[in-house]
Amino acid sequence: MREHEVRTALLELLADVGTVTATEAAARLGYSSGLCSFHLRQLARHGRVEEAPHGGGRVRPWRLRRQATAGAPEGGAGAQEGAPAAEFGDLARGLEDESWQRWLAQRDQAPAEWRRDEAFSAVAHLTPEEMERVADAIRRSLAPYRDREQRPLARPDGARPVALISRLFPLLPE
């Protein structure tokens, strides 16, 4: 349900700011610190984040897991800060797919008005510029709803988190 959304938001926040605690993430993202803590631990379990060095105490900062480059030890010289963009994209797609599979398996448990989805696909013959315009049009159509994540009071009664996934890519010849 929210797992994909929360984990993606945490990964994006870590990519932007470097390190955060669950409490800091909660304040920035509008979730509870317990929810952020849970998902940070899940991301760590899957090797996506790690605890950042800290001076002890109860503070537990997290960062994107350092990825070792070929021939360099983990976290040693030559390691890159953060996950490469392609790896982040792979993780996001994996979380999207996981959320979709969970939806398919459990949609009969949802309230009646929420038991359908609006999944569709299409093939269009586009130029690279047209593909970019289509993507921009999709982003613009979603813009009025984006701030509801950070502003819960802006959500109308009955609103729920809904995964909005769009993948535009050229089809390669066989």
UniProtKB/TrEMBL annotation:
Gene3D superfamilies recorded: Winged helix-like DNA-binding domain superfamily/Winged helix DNA-binding domain
Alphabetized InterPro entries for the sequence: ArsR-like_HTH, WH-like_DNA-bd_sf, WH_DNA-bd_sf
Protein name: ArsR family transcriptional regulator
Organism whose genome encodes this protein: Streptomyces armeniacus
